[in-house]
Design goal:
This protein has helices spanning 6-15, 72-87, 112-115, 119-135, 196-207, 227-241, 244-248, 308-314, 345-350, 403-408, and strands spanning 21-37, 40-58, 61-67, 139-155, 160-175, 181-188, 219-225, 269-271, 293-297, 300-301, 335-338, 354-368, 373-386, 389-393, 398-402, 410-422, 425-440. The protein has 442 residues and is an alpha+beta fold. The chain folds into 2 domains: 6-207, PmbA/TldD superfamily (PmbA/TldD fold, 2-Layer Sandwich); 219-440, no CATH class. Strand 4 (139-155) and strand 5 form a beta hairpin. A 6-stranded antiparallel beta sheet has the order 3-2-1-4-5-6. A 5-stranded mixed β-barrel has the order 7-12-13-15-17. The N and C termini lie far apart (47 Å). The longest helix has 17 residues, at 119-135. 50% of the residues are buried. The mean pLDDT is 97. It is globular, with a radius of gyration of 23 Å.
Length: 442
């Protein structure tokens, strides 16, 4: 993994760059992974690699190139390629300039104990889980990963940033002899705070739940969504509506609705990279310091997130949400938090005379992006709620639901939150009780 010495290479390359403006970014990751299936560990592996991006600017022409050669010679060659791309490209009338950023605050998200967690310790943790699975006549499979990520950004305007974070990620699927499955996952920065047996037990309990699964008819149901299912919806909702690109282009469900109610009053969503559970990288891929942004406050649309490009177009300032230089998505929230409520998860269930308990959604896809309509399936632990109690498993059902409508129909929010990782994003989310949720028999 790269060290802060990469800044010296970057500064030398920028000093010698013929471009009007130059930006260099390096993201380096070192991770170690244990995989297991059929109650056996079948893979232990590690990988260390870096990606370097160069953005060269000539007037209003920008060229981007990338490689994984972090040597002085490799960076110099990359700068040459990016310059050639820029010279042969077209002017971008929306581009104004790279951005200069002061030094970001130091990350609190690197834990050496996480990064140094031995493979033997991961194997021991997995063995304890497998012992529990065998005792319940279950078969389990999953992954257990520890990693560290370093990010370095420098440009010709004087931006110089370097920091690193650590992370653990765990996922488990447990399967009963009849084929019923349960699933759980966990993530965090400090592995010494990780209760892996409690996380695993959630999946084991679902797979071992007694009784035959019943088939329900298509209709609208009151549902209790576990945090994993909530995160599935939040991620896709954020992609559609919280980024400055979709807001600027009028493709966001928040376009022309800032200051209006778009969700239930119990829903507040923030981009909060410095939340103690997040401890996210303190700057983005342009070197801009991240900050807390209120996206939705008590159901009211407040603000989106921006990089320098779309901030200029929108007449705003960057919120520190730029993605890698060669992305096509524009700015995007990476550390979202749904504020907790006042009810326990058990109280959400007890308040439901009739409903469905959902562990997670699977294979969600858009039907109508402007209406945030998606389709997919429930998976790995779907249960019937009767008289305020979970009574029996049910056959998984198809989702055909507007996510924005679902967030508007939230009745209760749990006080408990879980940290959910998905596609490079972390989300700290509660359980939700949602009324009039559309599910179809499969």
């Amino acid at each position: 993994m790269i060290t802060e010495k990469i800044l010296d290479i970057f500064k030398g390359a920028i000093k010698n760059s013929p471009a009007d403006q130059t930006e260099l970014v390096c993201e380096s990751e070192e991770f170690y992974l244990t995989r297991f299936a059929e109650n056996l560990i079948h893979q232990n592996m590690g990988r260390s690699d870096s990606t370097i991006w160069c953005r060269a600017i000539f007037g209003k022409k920008a060229g981007v190139a990338r490689s994984n050669d972090a040597t002085k010679e490799g960076v110099a060659e990359l700068l040459k390629i990016a310059g050639d791309v820029a010279r042969n490209g077209n002017d971008d009338p929306g581009f104004q300039s790279l951005i200069r950023s002061d030094k970001a605050q130091k990350s609190q998200g690197f834990y050496k104990t996480t990064f140094d967690y031995p493979a033997a310790s991961r194997a021991g943790d997995v063995a304890a889980i497998i012992d529990r699975a065998k005792a319940a006549s279950l078969t389990c499979a999953g992954t257990y990963q520890t990693s560290a990520t370093a990010l370095c950004v420098a440009n010709s305007l004087g931006t110089e940033q370097f920091d690193k974070t650590s992370e653990y990620r765990f996922s488990l699927t447990a399967v009963a002899p009849g084929g019923r499955s349960g699933w759980s996952q966990a993530a965090g920065r400090d592995i010494e705070q990780f209760d892996f047996l409690t996380a695993a037990q959630r999946a084991l309990d679902k797979a071992a739940y007694p009784g035959e699964a019943v088939q329900l008819q298509s209709g609208t149901y009151n549902v209790i969504l576990e945090p994993d299912a909530v995160a599935n919806f939040l991620l896709l909702t954020a992609f559609l509506g919280f980024g400055g690109k979709t807001l600027h282009q009028g493709r966001s469900f928040m376009s022309e609705k800032i200051g209006q109610a778009i969700m239930a009053s119990g829903i507040t969503i923030t981009e909060d990279p410095f939340h103690p559970a997040m401890q996210f990288m303190p700057f983005d891929y342009e070197g801009v310091s991240r900050r807390k942004i209120t996206l939705v406050e008590n159901g009211i649309a407040r603000e989106g997130v921006y990089d320098s490009y779309y901030a200029v177009l929108a007449g705003k300032t960057s919120t520190g949400n730029a993605l890698a230089p060669d992305n096509n998505y524009g700015p995007y929230p990476k550390a979202m938090v749904i504020a907790p409520g006042n009810s326990s998860a058990d109280e959400l269930i007890k308040s439901t005379p009739s409903g469905i308990y959902v562990t997670r959604f699977w294979y969600l896809n858009y039907i109508n992006p402007m209406k945030t309509m998606v389709t997919g399936y429930t998976r790995d632990g779907t249960f019937l709620i009767e008289d305020g109690k979970i009574t029996k498993p049910i056959v998984d059902m198809r989702v055909q639901q507007s996510m924005l409508e679902a967030f508007s129909n939230v009745e209760l929010v749990s006080s408990e939150q879980r940290l959910i990782p998905q596609y490079g994003t972390l989300m700290l989310v509660p359980f939700l009780k949602i009324n009039n949720f559309n599910l179809s028999a499969t």
